[in-house]
Structure formats: structure tokens, C-alpha cells
Design goal:
Layout: H1 3-15, E1 22-23, H2 24-30, H3 37-45, E2 58-59, H4 71-82, H5 95-98
Keywords: DNA damage
Protein name: MGMT family protein
Domain Methylated-DNA-[protein]-cysteine S-methyltransferase DNA binding: 4-85
Length: 105
């Protein structure tokens, strides 16, 4: 992916306020790269040294944690819950309530 992709995605991610979430696909689309959600995941999973971004505010399609049950997913859920994001009984976040930039369907 071109460097512009990373700049756009990270700039958008910086705008996601506490207590709100977005998806890999939504970030890719807003950055101008629809259908590149996996590239967003790869970028966030390999952030360069010294680059900080609220990666934990990014969820999989439908409001799912990526790799549920892993240490990172547990930490992500804890971070989101501390910001007021609620998970339903099946472990998903209701994007109609907590989605950014607007509640998502």
C-alpha cells in the first residue's frame, strides 16, 4: 500500500473519540480505499516504533473483536469498556449506538 494509505487511515483513526468505535472496512472506505479492510488490519497490527494510535477502537465487521479470547482482544475489550462501550451477550458492540463517524448499520 502507498504511504498515503497509512497517513489517511491513521489520521482518521485519531479522530475516533473515546467511547466510539469504527470497523476496519469503514476506515478503509473513508480513507479512499474501499475493500481494503485487511490492509487496515495489517497496518494497525504493525505500527512503526513510536507511532501511537487508538487501534483498540477498531473492530471487525458487525462489531466483533478480532481474535476473541486472545490477550490482545481481552485488552481491547477492557479498554473499550473503560471508555463506556458496551458489549452484548454474544460479545459484539452495537454499531448503531457506538459506531463512528455516525452510528453504523
Amino acid at each position: 500500500m502507498p504511504p498515503e494509505f497509512a497517513r489517511r487511515v491513521l489520521a482518521l483513526l485519531a479522530e475516533v473519540p473515546p467511547g466510539r468505535v469504527t470497523t476496519y472496512g469503514a476506515l478503509a472506505e473513508m480513507a479512499g480505499y474501499p475493500r481494503h479492510s485487511r490492509h487496515v488490519g495489517r497496518l494497525l497490527g504493525n505500527l512503526p516504533e513510536g507511532v501511537t494510535a487508538p487501534w483498540y477502537r477498531v473492530l471487525g465487521a458487525g462489531g466483533r473483536l478480532s481474535r476473541p479470547g486472545s490477550h490482545h482482544a481481552d485488552w481491547q475489550r477492557l479498554q473499550l469498556e473503560e471508555e463506556g462501550v458496551e458489549f452484548n451477550a454474544s460479545g459484539k458492540v452495537d454499531l448503531r449506538i457506538f459506531g463512528w463517524p455516525d452510528p453504523m448499520v
